[in-house]
Amino acid sequence: MDFWWRPVLALSALLFVTLVAALFWGGLLALWLLVAGLLAYIGYNLRQMAVLVAWLAHGDRSRIPTASGAWDDIFYGLDRMLRRQKRSTAKISAVLERFEHAAQAIPDGIVMLNGNDQIDWFNPAATRHFGLDDNADRGQFIGYLIRQVAFADYLTSHNYSEPLVMKSPTHKELTLSVQMVPFGDKQKMLISRDVTQLELVEAMRRDFVANVSHELRTPLTVVGGFLETFLDMPSINQVDFHKYCDLMQQQTERMRRLIDDLLALSRLESAQNKLLDAPVDMTALIQSLYQDAQSLSAGRHQITLTLENADNIMGNVDELSSALGNLVSNAVRYTPVDGVIDLHWGWHNRQLCFSVRDSGEGIDAHHIPRLTERFYRVDRGRSRETGGTGLGLAIVKHVLTRHQARLVIESKVGHGSCFRACFPKTRVVKIAVAPTSPLIH
Ligand code: ADP
Q1: Concatenated DSSP letters of 76-125
Q2: Which distant-in-sequence residues (6+ apart) come within 8 Å of 211 by Cβ?
Q3: Judging by beta carbons within 10 Å of its beta carbon (0-12, 13-18, 19+), is residue 105 exposed, middle or buried?
Q4: Of 30, 213, 216, 310, which is the most exposed, with the fewest CB atoms less than 10 Å away?
Q5: Residue of the nearest CA to atom 11 in ligand 1?
Q6: CB-ligand 1 contact for 417 (6 Å cutoff)
Q7: Sheet of strand 351-358, all strands in order from the earlier edge strand to the far edge
Q8: Close Cβ partners of 22 (under 8 Å, ≥ 6 residues apart)
Q9: Does ligand 1 have an atom closer than 6 angstroms to the CB of 371?
Q10: Do the beta carbons of residue 154 and residue 177 sit within 8 Å?
Q11: How do beta strands 340-348 and 302-307 pair?
Q12: What's the Rg (C-alpha) of the chain?
């Protein structure tokens, strides 16, 4: 009724005027009046329609055309509809923008595929993982862009319950875990995750287990062999018996050292094991390491100690003693008889360093970056012969890292090596301990 009352009223008024005209002026004139009235009514509506069409086509949407009667309602209604639409478009744009930002921030790659496995959309991480090009690759079949047999098989298998681990087609150093997730009407989402670090850790874990097993198997085989000999020869003479027991003891000692070092490493790596800091009397510690070096060398080397500085370190005395002790014992173990070993405590390049310099065989440059890896040895035979576990420098590195210190290795084949543990200024404490003047033994 809201709409109809105006046209009904206008037409009724026209009819009424026509009737009055017929009564006073006669039928013909009244008919002309009716036709003229109807034409005016139709003309008015056509004109408003033209205004509406023009406004819809090119008009300024922020201003509605002025009209009267039912057309005013129509324009007003249209205006309200447009405003509502504008508001919901703005809302949808904001949501889309948020989604776009979120998708760009996600570290995982996302590629949206249509029913024909053609690319609809992808995020920047997918660009990195698969080398996709924003302009050229939209609409392309994903199988053309990732040309790997394993991926092609995965795509056509339609079994996407497990992810596929593959190398990135553009960055060979990247290992990706990719998984297809079907959704909607035959659409798919390809999600890729960079698992390079995880793979590396997994490979290290495998190597570690293999190394430990290998290290333990050799002494166990020796001990087992001797025990078998005892069983086969119940009447073994005392001299042989002692000799074999001695060898077995050496092997069990080797296993014990290995297990001790493994436990030390595990403690150092444990997240719960926070570093318990206290001022460490470095002069006393280094002097005791010097004594250890003397007894380990048993007079086979010429060993000197220079304490150039009486400053001390905030740290854990047990950990520091084990780490610096490893550097000292390595120098003794890898320096031939009559070689020279210098222990030095003092400032070097604005850091407080404990240096162990030896005149041993030296290490080829390509080994140096790998020396702190677990079980990495330059000379496997010499390491075993001298009771090495292959874990000493790994322990050193862990301990120094926990003290924000670093290990610097300088070496030249045929000229010896220098292992230097350098502590940052922030770790240095000046407490009254031991000698203040250089002390040379
Ligand atoms: P290991 O128990 O075998 O000595 P480390 O981790 O202490 O294990 O050392 C790793 C390797 O580094 C050793 O096997 C040895 O080849 C080399 N190395 C360490 N210190 C020295 C040194 N002072 N001179 C020569 N080579 C060394």
Answers
A1: HHHHHHHHHHHHHHHHHHHHHHHHHHHHHH-SSEEEEE-TTSBEEEE-HH
A2: 374, 375, 390
A3: exposed
A4: 213
A5: 377
A6: yes
A7: 406-412, 416-423, 351-358, 340-348, 302-307, 439-440
A8: 29, 30
A9: yes
A10: no
A11: parallel
A12: 44
Residue 435 has pLDDT above 60, yes or no: no
Extract the tokens encoding 202: 């997994």
Q: Are 60 and 52 in contact (CB under 8 A)?
A: no
Per-residue pLDDT, averaged over 35-59, amounts to: 88
Q: How far apart are CA 63 and CA 53, in angstroms?
A: 15
pLDDT one-digit tens code per residue, 159-179: 999 999 999 999 989 999 999
Please name which of 267, 305, 268, 302 lies closest in space to residue 441, comparing C-alpha atoms.
305
Check pLDDT > 90 for residue 103.
no
Is residue 108 within 8 A of residue 192, CB to CB? The reply is yes
Evaluate if residue 261 carries a pLDDT over 70. yes
What gap in Å lies between CA 37 and CA 16, rounded to an integer? 12
DSSP string, 386-419: TT--S-HHHHHHHHHHHTT-EEEEEEETTTEEEE
Does the beta carbon of 393 sit less than 6 angstroms from any atom of ligand 1? yes
The C-alpha angle 417, 255, 355, rounded to 5 degrees, equals 20
Q: Is residue 360 in contact with ligand 1, taking CB distance under 6 Å?
A: yes
Q: Using CA atoms, how far apart are residues 420 and 345, in angstroms rounded to an integer? A: 10
Q: Whose CA is nearest to atom 10 of ligand 1?
A: 377
Helices (H) and strands (E) in the chain, counts: 12, 14
What's the rounded Cα separation, in Å, for the pair 426 and 95? 49
Instruction: Tell me phi and psi for residue 161, to 5 degrees.
Output: -70, -30
